[in-house]
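Checklist before submission:
- one chain only
- standard amino acids only
- sequence pasted in full

Submission:
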Amino acid sequence: MHSNKAAKPNWFLLVPYFKVHWGDFSIAAVSMAMVALLSSASLSLIKPIIDQLFIEKDRSMLADLAWLVPILFLFKSFFSYLLNFLLTKIGHSINRTIRDELMSVILNQDHSFHARNKSSDLLSRATNDVQAVGNMVMNAPLYAIRDGLTVTFLLGLIFYLNFRLAAFMCLAIPIFSVLFVTFTARLRKITKKAQELVAAIYASVAEAIDGLAAIKIYLYEALWLGHFRDQNQQHYRAMVKFQKITALAPALMEFVSGLIITAVFFWGGLQAIEGAWTTGDFLAFLGASFAAYQPVKHLAQVNSIIQLGLSSWDRILLIKNAPPSPMANLSIQEKKPPAGKFERDLVFENVHFSYPDGRQALSGIDLHISKGEILGIAGPSGCGKSTLAALLARFYDPASGRIAIDGLDLRNWDTAHLRSRIGFVTQDAFLFDDTIGANIAMGKPSASVQEIESAARAANAWEFIGKLPQGLLTAAGERGFFLSAGQRQRIAIARAVLKNPSILILDEATSNLDPESEELVLAALSNLLRGKTAIVISHRPQTLSNTDRIIVMEHGRIIQETNYQELFTGRTSRLTELFKT
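Returned file contents:
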């Protein structure tokens, strides 16, 4: 049974998205059939108009046409509107659903997943690829069903008018089929390459924007632009190849159609001259033949739309089908019930950890932290301080060993329950493009304005917020662009204050503050830290002044343990050297 599921093609996985819109799609399909039928019906009027009105001079025909033609076009316009509206609605709805699911998967993956996948590539899949799938959903049924039925009905009319001549025209069908099969494989390969190149362009643009200051200060504009132009040129070439094939198929079909219509002119003209056909028969046959040309051309183009959409769908599935992280927060997996309360201690037992690229980060970490203890961690850059904090927040799991709270392994905790107890302030405070108040309220979305203001005061952030014309309603800007580094850091600290966590992690949290602000913030945080377990990572001696104990790390190991009072004595010479440098 499992093998059958695995054997299903990727496009089959789009079917459930259509099932949700089965009612709308059914109405759209009926509308497409009606448009095709009415288009053919309007052409069937050519024979009686020519024979009765122009040849026989039948005045009653005028009266019939006066009401019949407007009704035909009224219904055709109505059904055309209905099918276009419904297909567009279905396409945008499926786009929305796929984006929601894709974003849910992305947010539920751990840090190792994001280390393997560039953010720009994920952005490309959530925007460009999803749009290509939506375009396929909106246009492929329109061309395939409406135009396919139009060609079918027109063929029926043509066979009715002259069976032998219609049979001759059908010789084009095998030729069209060969062209379709020939171009499909090439289109799929090119579209896949084009989508990958689009993702690379996204990556370059994002990197240039993030690294704009470095590009400018090192006069790197010309070199970077050259690199970008190379990528852009590769994408251009891929799209030119794609358009060559996309344009070639209809052109060849048009040429074949032209040859067949020429034969129709010759053969049908001879029959008309010999009296085997009326003028109305001949013109109706010719009109139906010409009318079939545009739908046939659309059917040739639909292949490129489908191949582009399916290539994008394959790229989306690589993310959607990624196995869920055991450290996920959201409903992508069945949650374990909340486990454990933090009442006694936090323990690292022989913890080893390496990053996905193979770099050894932690080796044999044994550490006991009692509830209410404030632990300081010092050491040179790259020694594993931040990695230790990341493991506690369960951004990663240890390769071996375990981390336990009150004897219960973190892997047995519900991750959301665990993280609800942890406050984390890093060196690079990330603010969202929202108001200052909303950024602080992330710590407690239900917080009142008074609670947000109190948290801001505790973090010494109200000093500048209170002076702003709009106060907490002031826009922070993208990544907090409108604020200084120190202001962003204080807002991040206010966010942690508002959350009021059981465990507080400060990873170089005061490094972007000036000495005066740092002193005020540390004084405010000293009250917050009472009764809580805290891990304070810092290069600054003053930041470690409120700690009960300090460990020194080097090369992923704990090499020394001390306290603030002994910081600069001979017994802590390694730590002294660190702070002097």
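Reviewer check: The beta strands are 345-354, 360-370, 374-378, 400-405, 408-409, 422-425, 503-507, 533-537, 549-554, 557-562.
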